[in-house]
Specification:
By secondary structure, this protein is of the alpha+beta class. 23% of the residues lie in helices and 37% in strands. It has a single domain (5-79), classed as Roll (SH3 type barrels), CATH 2.30.30.140.
């Protein structure tokens, strides 16, 4: 299964000319390529697929989607390598 998972950008850096960032997926943080979403900055929410941000999304939609993904036991674990923490743990 391929998922686009919403997350909040924590930081943005230039890595040898490639725009990268740390993205928080409700408590799980991963390094993500931000080249496809040049308008996204720290604090923005993006949809991430296989390590690349593919679009921006607003916070409300991101939280709603993360809630659905949390309800799908194991779905996110295959993409992130670990399950999403419960909402209380991720805050």
């Amino acid at each position: 299964m391929c998922l686009g998972i919403p997350g909040r950008i924590i930081s943005v850096v230039d890595d040898a000319g490639l725009r990268m960032g740390t993205v928080d997926f409700g408590g799980v943080r991963r390094e993500v390529c931000l080249a496809c979403t040049p308008e996204a900055e720290a604090g923005s929410y993006v949809i991430v697929h296989v390590g690349f941000s593919i679009s921006r999304v607003d916070e409300e939609e991101a939280e709603r989607t993360l809630g659905v993904l949390r309800a799908m036991a194991g779905a996110v674990e295959g993409e992130l390598g670990e399950p999403l923490p419960s909402r209380a743990e991720g805050r």
